[in-house]
Design a protein that fits this description.
alpha+beta, single chain, nine-stranded mixed beta sheet, globular
């Protein structure tokens, strides 16, 4: 029963992220950890149409324990998700192809920065008047090849709960799926706010 519940939750979240524009065109993905097992959406499928039986189940080492069959492939995000599970003890990790996350990487060099926004309070370890930073890594032709640079970004930025990928999207994690979802929504708001500030001629610290 617990396994079925978690499978259904992954599908529900994928549908929500599709409606937000975070998982269109088979992009994006989500995984969550419960009871020592990791539930992960497959690769290259329409996320809004996922069914519980389509979900992969992995152990904490990242080995597949249950797979859907019928040609389904494990998400290319898997090695990146595993970095957050191992290095940050995450309870859920998601990958968004949000247009806001994508475009904001064009405004900043190595780190996204913003300050003084109320929505920062939705992120662990930040207040409204702190300076929020999110590392930006360069994209690769194949998503799995991002794993090393994402792992390094996590090591180099112990406070961050997210990593941006230039011209691609963002990875976000949390202690459980509720926090990961909340933080993803807050980050996306802040990415959009930075883009609108740029349009309005409000100065951004883009170093």
């Amino acid at each position: 029963m617990e396994s079925q519940k978690n499978r259904e939750l992954v599908c529900e979240l994928c549908r929500q992220f599709y409606r937000l524009g975070w998982a269109s065109g088979t992009g994006g993905g989500i995984s969550l950890k419960e009871g020592g097992r990791i539930y992960m959406a497959p690769s290259g499928v329409q996320k809004e149409r996922l069914l519980p039986e389509d979900i992969f189940v992995l152990n904490e080492k990242g080995d597949i324990e249950e797979e859907p069959g019928q040609g389904a492939q494990l998400s290319q995000c898997a090695p990146l998700f595993m970095h957050a599970y191992r290095m940050r003890n995450a309870g859920a990790v998601l990958h968004s192809h949000s247009i806001h996350a994508n475009l904001v990487t064009q405004l900043f060099n190595k780190k996204f920065r913003i300050q003084g926004m109320e929505m920062q309070k939705g992120l662990e370890g930040y207040g409204a008047f702190d300076t929020l930073e999110v590392p930006i890594i360069e994209n690769t032709a194949h998503e799995r090849d991002l794993a090393d640079s994402l792992g390094q970004a996590i090591r180099d930025n112990p406070k961050t709960q997210a990593v941006l990928v230039r011209n691609h999207g963002v990875y976000v994690w949390g202690r459980d799926w509720k926090q990961a979802k909340t933080q993803a929504e807050c980050y996306d708001y802040l990415f959009e706010a930075a883009g609108r500030m740029k349009q309005l001629g409000i100065a951004l610290q883009t170093d």
